[in-house]
Amino acid sequence: MQRIAAYTHSESEIKDLKDTCEVSDYLKRYSVVWLDVVSPTQSEIDKLGEIFNFHRLALEDCLHTTQRAKVDNYEDHFFLILKVANYNGKAGTYQLSMFVGKNYIVTVREKNEPDVIKPIFEKIAIKNPTIMRNGTDYLCYLLIDVIVDDYLPVLDKIDDEIEEIETEIISENTKDAIDRIFKLKKDLLLLRKAIFPTMEAIACIQRGDLPHLGKKTAVYFNDVYDHIVEVVDLLETSRELISGALDIHMSKTQNTINEVAKMFAMFAIILMWPTVIAGIFGMNFKIDEYESGSFGFYLSLGITLLLMIATWIYFKQKKWI
After folding, report:
1. 95 closest CA partner among 54, 60, 66
2. Spatial separation of the C-alpha atoms in residues 203 and 224, rounded to whole Å
């Protein structure tokens, strides 16, 4: 899928393209042209290279979607890779590659879900004056900003799930808590791999040594950098929370094991008295002794019961049971 948004100070046009070569006409008629390509084929990538004269290595990075976020300077344009994040019961990321030139921006997306850049297309369609009177550097800022801002809802969803897990652990409903904890730890690790390099890339842009980035737009990238720092802080907080939830779970599990072991130990001590007394006396009473009224058996049985009851009372007073 290919979509183009082109505009000048006074007019704008948005259209779905059937052929990449159509973009050449828009480059002649408009001051800013934004071409968005989703899930491109090799032939579409090759056409982009022919039209815009992009470097072969950058084009290869568009197809190899396991790249980390980065910025490459190619003198007449710069190349940027970012990661778009989403969370729907499981964290996921996809790659967005961006070429920024004097009068064009080309974005190459691995897939279209979530479509975080849709609001920017809508603003161009209604001729948003702030976008219309600025160049590609401002459009680049908007694209980066929506991607960074979209990290926050993802982390909020994860924090909500962490709170649910903590509630379950405290209420001792921990049947699947450990599985959910380790799943969230993997999700946070995936997001960390996406977000930390993004912060480094934005810091590189913030320095302002890339082509076609005006001083007027620099303040906007400072704001984006503040946002990504906030996201990183929230990410680290979430990692600490999930580690804390795991510690609580392990502590409660260990306490439960200790309680069970303590109960077994106390019952073993209580049942020790019949074993000891029976072992000493052997309980070798003749049958005729019962008939003749001997009380040896009943006396030993009574002593055993008294010792067992006394031991139980002692444990209760110590609040061990």
Report:
1. 66
2. 9
What CA–CA distance (Å, rounded) separates 144 from 71? 12
Residue 78 Rama label (left phi>0; alpha psi -120 to 50; beta): beta
- Rounded (10°) angle between helices 215-270 and 272-281: 30
Answer whether the bond into residue 114 is a cis peptide, omega within 30°. yes
Tokens of 137: 């550097």
State mean pLDDT over 224-246: 92
Among residues 68, 56, 25, 59, which one has the least CA distance to residue 41?
59
pLDDT digits (tens, 9 = 90+) for 26-48: 999 999 999 999 999 999 999 99
The mean pLDDT value for 86-107 works out to 94
Q: Are 100 and 78 in contact (CB under 8 A)?
A: yes
Predicted pLDDT of residue 282: 59
The Cβ of residue 187 has, within 10 Å, a number of other Cβ atoms equal to 22
List Cβ<8 Å contacts ≥24 apart for 242-247. 242/162, 242/181, 242/184, 242/185, 242/188, 243/185, 245/162, 245/165, 245/166, 245/169, 245/177, 245/181, 246/178, 246/181, 246/185
Q: Beta strands 78-87 and 32-38: pairing type? A: unpaired
pLDDT of 101 reads 95
Q: What is the mean pLDDT of residues 69-81?
A: 94
